[in-house]
Design brief:
Length: 350
Amino acid sequence: MNSLLSVPAPLRAYLGNVERRWQGSVAQRVWQLWLAELRSCVPVRLRHRFSAQVPVQTHRWPITMPGPEVQAGARQVLMLPTPLVMIHRLQLPTAARDLTAVVGYELDKYTPCPRDQLLYVVRQDGRSAGWLQVTLIAILRERMNAILADCTALGLTPQRVDVCAEDGTPLGIDLLPDAARPLNPRAGIDRRRVLGGSCAVLLVTLMGLWLHDRQQRLQGMRATVQAQKAEVAQVQQLRQQLTNTLGAADYLSRHKAARPTMAALMSELTACLPDDTWLEQLEIDADDVSFSGQSVRASALISRLKDCRSLENPQFQGVIQPDAASGKERFALHARLHQEVADGPNTDTP
């Protein structure tokens, strides 16, 4: 309780300003109508649980002797007559937000007293054609202090000071000074509960946002890792293709280097074949060599071709036939090209 009563003065002034704006505002009337509609929807046997409101006891000024009967636990409201206050109907632009501050800057235009000698409330009544319909209710601070002193002497402590209109209805305002406003302990506890709950909700929301951000970053990192893995796999595939291509090119180059050249092959065939032999056809297909022709002694060609280093395993294809026109023997031979081992081990080395 002591901690609630020791509220700083700026906070008390701010809460009092908020309460003055709330009292008699359009939002308050809409809120009350909405609550009334909600209560009418609740069953009668349960309605008392939701309608536990603080009773309001109204006292009209001036108070006759010997004093009012104060109801325990009730909210004490003091109703002032219209002649005690100054009431002005004003029009302000719709751009005006803080009506109390706007009217307070020009208060000397509407009242004969300076601002520091007045207690005033600004109430918005409506709007039309780009203007706000505003009611200014003001009273001398000295007069209000005298009224409150008289109430205290009569045993009454008002918790709200309203004004009774000419038709008898209250204006729904509060002219009570900030210093005289009682601080409701329950309201303070409720505010602390609301503040604590709001802090808890904000903390949970902050944690959720932090976790969501971490999850988003984790998913982004996973996507980046997957993309990098795909790039690495593509690079490895290209590297393997390059390796295969280089290997094939190296194999072709070594294979080409191992094969004898056409000039060397023709030179060796010319040297290995006897002078009485000539060729009619010569075919070289990959590693195979086929040639045919005529010779005086075709059967001796196999032994002669064995001395040819560029050819391996020479064999006759078909049979040797005599040629009646030339008197020689017609033959057909097949052999394989000799392949040199590129970069092979030296057999002479121990």
